[in-house]
């Protein structure tokens, strides 16, 4: 074997061991990683494919700027010429506009069925009855207020003309001199106002409409001719006593009422404040409901200019007379080049799809953490010296690295294939957002993993969160974000759920990239975070705070609920308590009921208890294990009494001794070992391992302990060599000493040759896994080793080889071994203890136990059934105290007390019996360890039943 390691492994050594193991494990799961990364790649490629199909449809000739074949030189040859003059209204948006045309500004006029009427929530007498909606004759209401009502009346009168006048020689100037409006939705681009080519009419606001109140207007723009009907809309001037009354009426009546969505809309509201002949001061209300489909920017502002112009003209006419006007003749776009119809699907669909792409990392991390918990791999690492600090540091950094690489590949691939979602938005903002979120997601996975113990359940719940977050975000949360009437405070509350925080951030990226692509500008920049309508700043703050809080809570819950330490840690953890020096000395406290219990014990058990009492009084001892009245009681449930698993066990083991624990199933052997290795907390009493108390210093005990559990705790994809390398590093083995120790360990359990060492543990047979578990428990020269049925499932040859390994290993360490094989117990164990119903019934070496509890011979004879009585009489003659312990079909077995019988007499009696009847078979055997075990176990169980 290799030279022992010097001292426990340091923090860095433990971290290095776990990191190397994780990297190797990751290399073994390369196919899983490829499948993981392929999901966003396939999704991005699908978006590109759909985008190309959409672009192909959008870039058809019918959607491009119109063209015509014209003979420009008179030579009979036509030449293709494109431009607005050859385009339809739908094609104009793609044409180059070198000199934008003039176009008259309009008011936003409510449709007749939505104009303000008298209702129960707007009970003003100057408003008409709702009967006008049936005839379409409701007036267009203009609300006004101020300090001077008479002046307000004059100004409103100047705004609304008495009639509609049209100069056919200069139609556009005529339209600017009148008050035109439309109920059609406005547009960001004003090359052609939608009112002039929509189904809704254009209205002329007049003080009073006559019987024939409609006319037709012909407008020529380039090669486009528009014939537009202009209808009269009576302008109703409604005075209110204050701006509060105007404000209340505007917002109280809008989109309220019955199921038919009764709507009370007005043209505008004017507050002339302190306006007089020397001062013009006015506030204007306008309807900002109309928005485009690409973001939050209201586009109704393009018609606000006309409302401002009306108020200015009214004041000028009040001062200088009705002939004075400041005409607002037209609105124009800036010149623009020829453009293509663009529709960025990655921005339209990316919020939902990319939410799924990123959140799918959550169940991946969660299942990995729960897998270690379910398979008890973390407990196994802990028992071999891995501390909580290195585990959390490396595990967190490991998942962070995987997540970062995943996100980096995702962003790079999306950028390479040209998704505007990535290319238009500032990469630094994307980096900060994704980095913060994946940290929050990993912290959340650590927290949630504490509440799961089954991988399948955790995975199902994880993927429910994935799809649920995306669907709820797309079909619920997004509507709240886009609804300006929804309280912003509740949006913040909803974003406390990490899935909605992610969705909001991706939503902001999508909005900015879509608008940037549509407008031909850039996406989100750092300066945009100061915009009150941009939610990215709030999301980043929420995620940073949640990340830190969730990480702390996850670590705290892990420490409090962890059963590996042997005790639950309270607030601020055990490590912040005052350090206590390990000592065998205990407080002198009376133990109630101890005297009665001791009187019922066997002399050998009492002697062991007295030895423990003496050792505890000494300042120090060289004993490796000292158990002091160790008890474990499981509380009763469903009306059942408490279950006593271990009843006051006292035991002392020096180095170099192998102690075997025998007992029937349920006797308490596994419960005892679980307490010793820190899986469960003792109900009372304690034990000292290398001078350290299992109640308070389990972390120190782990550095010098080896465990071969009852069930093999192995990573399926790691090889036997890699397992031993990992655990060897945890035991502070390095360099050539580590390599030599691993090689010798594998050779000792016959797992080195034939490529077995490089074979993954998942492909091992049951026996090979048991041998690997034994090798793991012995590597690194642990001072104390616990082996729970180590030879289970081994063939005879492998079992004998394993016995040699254990025999050699016990020379300088204490070993506690449980087994159901009496042969194994005799071969390996220096001392044995038989456990029944949680208590130690006897203790000693195999010879002592057989001498003490097996003082009889076992005589067996097989005859025909007619001679059974004669055989019984013969045995009773040989030994009056003989007991028949077995009888079936002529075969009988008897126990003969050794002090009553001589072996020569038995042989003589058998010879005499053969002369009288046929003896098929007979035998005389000394008591075996198995006989002792059965006798002690039955006696103890019978006593417990009677008591």
TrEMBL record:
Classification via Pfam families = ABC2_membrane_3 (PF12698), ABC_tran (PF00005), ABCA12_C (PF24526)
> Where is it located?
Membrane
In terms of Gene3D superfamilies, this protein maps to: P-loop containing nucleotide triphosphate hydrolases
One cellular component (GO) term of this entry:
membrane
How is it placed in the membrane, per its record? Multi-pass membrane protein
Q: Which domain of life is it from?
A: Eukaryota
Q: Which UniProt keywords apply?
A: ATP-binding, Membrane, Nucleotide-binding, Transmembrane, Transmembrane helix
Which part of the chain is the ABC transporter domain?
625-862
Q: PROSITE patterns, per this entry?
A: ABC_TRANSPORTER_1, ABC_TRANSPORTER_2
Which residues span the membrane? 36-54, 348-371, 391-419, 431-453, 460-481, 487-506, 539-557
Q: Which InterPro entries match?
A: AAA+_ATPase, ABC2_TM, ABC_transporter-like_ATP-bd, ABC_transporter-like_CS, ABCA, P-loop_NTPase
A GO term for molecular function: ATP binding
The family note in this entry says:
Belongs to the ABC transporter superfamily. ABCA family. CPR flippase (TC 3.A.1.211) subfamily.
For this entry, the protein name equals ABC transporter domain-containing protein
